[in-house]
């Protein structure tokens, strides 16, 4: 079992909120622009669209594709033999020296000129963004040197597209040999399976290790209140059962791909960088049991080190300990930071996860039982030993 020290994105990001919201807006508008130009409403990555489609549409609109700025834009799109992956070179985003307002420009169908897809950021906001990127690089570089994993938390839907996109680009950079950077997928959201499938596809096509933490999601009340206040569709699944179904579907999508990689990996036909590492971050015994059964069904063993489990320190030890003893990788999250940041974090966990409080009575009972067992069997200072291979570190 491992302890994983956890701070949320929030301390890093509070000041950068405008940038995250702007970047999330870029992602939204890019999808709209793609549909406007190509007429395709589905995800870009599964669409078979290539640059010819854009050139044809631009010619129809009398936009000169030999204009150097437009030519450069067309040439810089990210695509492979299966088609388009991204309209922009998103890897430019993680280059701390690039200006966001220079990166996100598209040919405007009405004016025929290259124009920014969002209103320009102020110099101060651009500087904040650069600083954030520098800090992220420092963290991920250090983690890679020390061979530890970094789990990037998921936050509210109005920031999350930016966090998720940045994390995926960081994965592309830092997950070349193993999964160091992990993204988080909140299964209480209606769009999560689609987003997860797209990101898995991107990691497969761009050949980097994919790391993901699957959670149910911690901001349900806030999401619903905001959707209600601003009059947009509630992004959260309609019921607890629907969230659980989404969790199961996301897990199966990952297991299916892991099994695929495993069968090819054994014969060295698939590059090892197509590998996947998943953390099941849940305090729900049924979810843990479901995962263990599904792993068995898909022929994925604990020693494959592709699935691990995560619980908060001091919570659900009766789930973590047997998992660890049965050979599964288990991480205990240790909330860490200044008191004024950690206490609100813990109180949020307590209120958002009301069901955990119900489980506490059971935990207290089990702790007493274990204490009694140790006293009666002379194992008061019992310390389990074991060899540990971190999750995602196993080459395929
Ligand atoms: C190691 C770890 C890391 C985590 N990291 C993150 C993170 O990065 N981002 C984040 O948002 N959360 C994170 N969480 C919290 C997580 O999202 C859940 O809030 C928490 O774990 C409770 O879910 P559960 O599966 O453990 O328990 P359960 O009691 O089975 O599930 C409770 C959850 O179900 C969902 N739910 C409840 N009622 C409904 C309803 N009516 N309709 C739809 N859904 C409903 C909610 O998501 C609620 O939190 C993390 C949790 C752990 C253990």
From TrEMBL:
A GO BP annotation: L-proline catabolic process to L-glutamate
A cellular component annotation (GO) from this entry: mitochondrion
Biochemical pathway: Amino-acid degradation; L-proline degradation into L-glutamate; L-glutamate from L-proline: step 1/2
The keyword Flavoprotein belongs to this UniProt entry's keyword annotation: yes
Domain of life assignment: Eukaryota
Documented EC number(s): 1.5.5.2
A Pfam family the protein falls into: Pro_dh
Record flagged with keyword Oxidoreductase: yes
Catalytic reaction equation(s): L-proline + a quinone = (S)-1-pyrroline-5-carboxylate + a quinol + H(+)
Record's keyword terms, sorted: FAD, Flavoprotein, Oxidoreductase, Proline metabolism
GO molecular function: FAD binding; proline dehydrogenase activity
Residues covered by the Proline dehydrogenase domain: 118-357
Cofactors (names): FAD
Known function: Converts proline to delta-1-pyrroline-5-carboxylate.
Family listed: Belongs to the proline oxidase family.
Protein name: Proline dehydrogenase
GN (gene name): slgA_1
